[in-house]
Amino acid sequence: MTKKMAFIGAGSMAESILSGILASGFLSKENIIITNKSDFERLEHLEREYHIQYVEDKQETVAGAHIVLLAVKPYDMEAAIESIRAYLDPDQLLISVAAGVSTDTISQLLGREIPVIRAMPNTSAAAGASATAVTRGQHATESHLRTALELFRTIGTATEVDEEDMHTVTAIAGSGPAYVYYLVEAMEEAAVASGLDKQTVHELLVQTIAGAGEMLKSSGQGPTQLRKNITSPGGTTQAGLEALDKGRFQETVIACVETARERSVELGKK
Prior knowledge:
The chain is an alpha/beta fold. About 55% of the residues lie in helices and about 15% in strands.
C-alpha cells in the first residue's frame, strides 16, 4: 500500500482522481497532499471538501511521497517540473496525466533518472468509472507499471498501451465522456421541446446511457450488432438513424476523434 501521494495540480482531473482514490480506500486522506501553482482558493476548497492537506511549499509537498502525480495542463508542465525537480529522487514514481506530453519530454525536463509513467484517465474517475490508459517511460520498471495500474484501477479500468497510441486514447477515452454528454444534451433538448419534463427526461437518459454501456460490456456483442438488434425495418429507430445519416453523423464523429487526436499531438510538440 502506498504510504503517501503528492498531487501537483488541483484542477478538475486532479479532483476526479482524488475523489475516486478516497472513495475506493486505496489511500486515506491523511496520506494525500496537494499543491498547485497559485490558486489557493482552489486548494482551500479541496481541503474543505476532502479533508486533505495542502501546502504551498513544493519541497514539502513531494518530500517522502511514493507517487508524485502531475495533474497540470500541458503548457504548465515545464514550470511544474521546474518547481519540484530539485526535490525528487529515483525512489519516487512520477505519474503524468497531462494530455499530449510524452514520457521522453518529461524525462528530458527532469534531467534525472526518475521513473516516469504517463496515464490518460477521464473525469469519470470521480464515479469510479474511468477508462485509463497507461504507458511507461524511461527508468520505469514493471513494478512501477503495476503500481500505476493498481492506482488507476481503483477509479475504473486501467490498460497498458504503447505510447504511440496515447494520442488516440486521449481523443476517445480522455475526451470521450464530453462527447457522450453533448449527445445527451441534444437528446434532452429534443425531448423537453416535445413536452416531457426535464427531470423525467434526465432519469430516462441516464438509465439509457448506463444500460447501453452495460450491454456493450456484458452482452458479448459489438456495437454494430447491438444497433441492428433494436432497429426494426420501417420502425422508429430506423427513422432516427436515417436522420443521423442524413446529418453525416458517423463522418462527424470520426472527424471529431481525428481532430482531438491532432490536438493532442500539437500539445505534445508545444
